[in-house]
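Slide 14.
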Amino acid sequence: MEGVEWLRSNGFRIYGVVIDGMKGLPQALKPLHVQMCQFHQMLIVRRYLTQDPEIEASRELLVLVNGITATDKESFIGAFGEWYDKYRNVVNERVHDGRIKRRTPPYMRPRLRSAYLSVKRNMPLLWTFYDHPETGLPNTNNALEGFFSDLKTKVRVHSGISKEHRKKLLDEYIRRHY
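Slide 15: predicted structure.
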């Protein structure tokens, strides 16, 4: 929020923000357009389901989400709805064990359910770039992450320089490239 305010106070016009999944950020950034990085959503789902899930429902969800960057909004939302209709019982199945002394038993596949709920919760934020093309927002923050990675490499190579020279290095790099 400090960064957004600094940019505004220095004359920048902010058309939108691409985020990588911090939970409270979309609400904090209102009324700006907020785009959830589709690549980071893929990583979140992959973290829940692993690279090679054993359950068919998990495998199909992983394939569906891995194709999000190459799919349009309507196709993805339709396919996601069809996936849920097909696997609703698998996602919502609970453990039936008399030894569990809880009011509501736990879910049988909590990681699959968490992956599903993550996509469902972030769905409106995954398509901001599509709904508001006038903003020019990208669907991922990969370009920015690549820029920062390159910048960090430049600074790391010159690790012994003073803060003053590091600032000059960063200012010059940004000036030459942007």
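Speaker note: The chain is about 60% helix and 5% strand.
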